[in-house]
Amino acid sequence: MKAEPALLAAQEALNTLNKANLTELKSFGSPPGAVTNVTAAVMVLLAPAGKIPKDRSWKAAKVLEARSSMEVWSYSRTGLS
């Protein structure tokens, strides 16, 4: 499968995250565009029943992060194959 190397690299990157990284993320008042893009993508991936959230702003991402930061680590990757 062509996406397998990218999926493995993403898994390895997730394994490097720690509490300090999440604290830094939460500290951004206005993050760089790349950070906003990644948090918006995470919001889409974690959306219940595949319902894409209309509000994928930084403010909405911070609310989601406060609620469910551990979901990122436990996200089922089987749906991506």
UniProtKB/TrEMBL annotation:
Domain Dynein heavy chain coiled coil stalk: 2-67
A Gene Ontology biological process term: microtubule-based movement
Gene Ontology cellular component annotations, sorted alphabetically: dynein complex
Residues of the signal peptide: none
Matches recorded under Pfam families: MT
A GO molecular-function descriptor: dynein intermediate chain binding
InterPro entries: DHC, Dynein_HC_stalk
Protein name: Dynein heavy chain coiled coil stalk domain-containing protein
